[in-house]
Write a structure and sequence with these properties.
6 strands; two-stranded antiparallel ribbon; 285 residues; alpha/beta; 50% helix; 8% strand
């Protein structure tokens, strides 16, 4: 996937290393500032963390030391580019619909996070919270996507981000609110069925983004589409249930089967038109 030259979004909140209560792990802001100063001056930061202070009279000349970027830093950079691309793409699509697109925030977290939709652990996977219009992502999910779900590739990761942004699009269009209202008036089976249609539409919207982004900026390389479709199939309800339970319960589906997720992602990817993503009007999914 071609992304290195892309614009980076400013709508990233990096809460990695912060507890779900919002308190930084390992000291307050004063400690952080002192450690940064120590690093800038070439002084061992442990001196600061142990309560002492560097002897400035004997400190060596200031030398800026840049640590090589970690794998997570590179992935964060990638996510910032993908998010920016969704902003540009959906901004243009909304303009064509005579609507205003409001960029969502994307929150990076580790292990657990507090959102306006409640507390969540990394085990729930990436999610979108309509109440604060934020996407939440623990970057370790991409490792799970590659190793546990056997869905490698950067475009597979981009699909995950684009799917959650698809939920933001649904929120802005008023679709999420209508579904939530219908779910509150039905039984669990009906609520699950509505959830499946909502999720499949987000898959289709992810495909719409990829189609339009590729037309404008030629982001796709050979093998990317296959990686994206593989990711959609890997997290289908039937495959996940078979892995965890050993059998499949269709009435308990909340996201759609592997076949359905692939079909709707492909539909958006091939057509690039929001109007082709009406999962609620479709007789068959």
């Amino acid at each position: 996937m071609r992304w290195q030259m892309g614009r980076r979004s400013d709508n990233i909140e990096d809460r990695r290393g912060i507890g779900d209560g919002g308190v930084a792990v390992g000291g307050g802001i004063g400690t952080v500032v002192l450690v940064l100063v120590a690093l800038f001056l070439g002084v061992d930061p442990s001196v600061v963390l142990q309560g002492g202070g560097p002897d400035m009279s004997t400190a060596p000349p200031a030398v800026e030391r840049r640590a090589p970027p970690s794998d997570e830093d590179r992935v964060k950079d990638f996510v910032a580019v993908v998010l920016a691309d969704t902003e540009d793409t959906w901004g243009e699509i909304f303009r064509r619909m005579n609507r205003e697109y409001r960029d969502p925030k994307l929150v990076l977290f580790s292990d657990a996070v507090q959102s306006s939709c409640g507390n969540a652990s990394a085990a729930v996977g990436p999610f979108y919270c309509p109440a604060d219009q934020k996407v939440y992502l623990d970057l370790s999910f991409f490792r799970d996507l590659r190793e546990r779900f056997r869905a490698p590739g950067e475009f597979a990761q981009a699909y995950v981000v684009a799917h959650e942004v698809g939920h933001h699009v649904q929120n802005l269009l008023g679709i999420s609110q209508k579904v939530s209202s219908l779910q509150s008036r039905g039984d669990e089976r009906k609520a699950n069925a509505l959830s499946v249609r909502l999720e499949l539409q987000a898959d289709c919207f992810a495909g719409v983004w990829a189609n339009n982004a590729n037309k404008s900026r030629q982001i796709l390389e050979q093998g990317d589409v296959e990686n994206g479709l593989n990711a959609a199939a890997a997290i289908g309800d039937d495959r996940l249930q078979r892995q965890s339970r050993g059998y499949v319960v269709p009435d308990a589906f909340t996201h759609g089967s592997s076949e359905q997720r692939v079909r709707w992602f492909k539909r958006g990817l091939q057509g690039g038109d929001v109007r082709q993503c009406d999962t609620f009007g479709a007789r068959e999914l």
